[in-house]
Design goal:
By secondary structure, this protein is mainly α. The chain is about 75% helix and about 0% strand. The chain has helices at about 10-35, 40-70, 90-115, 120-140.
Length: about 150
């Protein structure tokens, strides 16, 4: 792998985008966990609360990295559309779309750090793996609805 210099400003900007997106995930998943009804409510609520907690952890990790690069963490969150669709299927489908967008952000970051920082590259690859795993779980959960 060839060594390239990192555009620190660009990486800080991407980490802020990730942080804002992950913080929106905290709000999104918390909202969803409150809206689930029906006989499968309890395990799905637990799953959604886990996702909210993980989103918070991901936001904190991104914030630690960007402040380590002398950046300033945003206090914003990415806009969240309220669809008012709260069936379990709708919640899981919206969650899957959220995870796909998160994966795009991490893949974008990977393209910028690949070959220039082992630490940032490994961090990003780990999160890509987690986002891909979440997508697999959500797809499996959605199978009963097809």
């Amino acid at each position: 792998m060839e060594n390239k210099n990192i555009d620190t400003k660009e990486i800080i900007n991407l980490l802020n985008q990730i942080m804002e997106f992950e913080l929106a995930g905290v709000v999104r998943y918390t909202h969803y966990s409150l809206m689930v009804t029906g006989p499968y409510r309890l395990p799905i609520v637990d799953f959604l609360k886990e996702q909210a907690n993980e989103s918070l952890m991901h936001a904190q990790q991104a914030g630690e990295l960007l402040t380590g690069l002398d950046g300033h963490p945003s206090q914003k969150i990415t806009s969240i559309e309220e669809t008012h669709n709260h069936s379990i299927r709708d919640i899981l489908e919206e969650s899957l779309e959220h995870e796909k967008r998160a994966l795009e952000l991490y893949k974008n970051l990977l393209s910028k750090v690949e070959g220039s920082s082992v630490y940032l590259e490994e961090y990003t690859r780990g999160l890509i793996g987690q986002e891909e795993q979440h997508q697999l779980e959500l797809k499996k959960m959605l199978k009963d609805f097809s």
